[in-house]
Amino acid sequence: MKLRALLVDNDCPARKDLSHLLQSIEDVQVVDEATNALEALDLIRNLDYSVIFLDIVMPGLDVIDLTRQLQERSDLPIIIFTTAQEEYVLAFAVNALEYLHKPIHPKRLEEALIKVRKLKGILTEQKSNPLPPVKNELLTPPHKPLEVIPVEQKDKIIILHQDEIIFIYTDKDKVYIKTQKDSYLTRFTLRELELRLNSNLFFRSHRCYLVNFQRMREIIPYFNGTYTIVVDDNERSQIPVSRTKSRVLKGMLGL
User: Is residue 134 part of a domain?
Assistant: First the structure.
């Protein structure tokens, strides 16, 4: 049985390159292509796909919004993100199986498809044999999401809720969580917090910063295509956005 693929990318050469790679793989059939998320959503509503290759940064409908709408389906297609960015950005935020960095290397593509085949086999077995349940290790997150975060202040452990957090930063190998008035030390690494917090709420703007989307108030162009985010704590703190993350932020906000 062939894997039915949908390619979603506003870059025509990128779509052609990926389509050419997939044509050489016997059990994959490129059924459709879309240039933006709205086109993709319309296609997905009318046809069934096994796997969607989805570019992270595109104009129009945000890819996060697209994947949220896809998650309402009982037969959610497997998502593989493609990205020209240097860093893995959003794939952990939604039900994405893998990400591929463009230009896509044939070996990395085949590795991703091996995961797709394995997962499709697991899902087929689950439908055929609902009892006992089969653990889907590919989609099981390495940590449970944190609803609250323990932080340290003097000799006390204080519990913070996610909506209290304005941003998180590192300083001399220590990680601090900034609220409206205070900064608290936490024993989690920034990477651990990035994976365990609500990824629809927090954005990794820089290797040293995570910022709460809901507490952003201004985005100021800075230097060489980068931005500075102003948040609404008492100090009106300014959070740097790296060059790579600035491109991602622009795409997410439709700038």
Answer: no
Please tell me whether residues 14 and 117 are part of one structural domain: yes
Give the angle subtended at the CA of 183 by the CAs of 204 and 175, to the nearest 5°. Answer: 50
Amino acid present at 167? F
- Domain containing 102 equals 3-128
**How far apart, in whole angstroms, are the C-alpha atoms of residue 155 and residue 158?**
10
- What is the signed CA dihedral for 21, 250, 191, 93, rounded to 10 degrees? -60
Alpha-carbon dihedral of residues 77, 82, 85, 86, nearest 10 degrees? 100
Residues 8 and 110 in one domain: yes
Eight-state DSSP code of residue 247? H
What tens digit of pLDDT does each residue of 178-219 get?
999 999 999 888 888 887 888 788 999 998 999 999 999 999
Report yes or no: 194 and 168 within 8 Å, Cβ to Cβ: no
Residues 129, 201: Cα–Cα separation, whole Å: 37
For the question of whether the overall pTM of this predicted structure is more than 0.85, the answer is no
Q: Are residues 102 and 168 both part of a single domain?
A: no
Domain assignment present for 141: no
> What's the one-letter identity of residue 94?
V
The b-or-e profile of 149-170 (16+ CB within 10 A means b, else e) is: bebeeeeeeeebebebbbbbbe
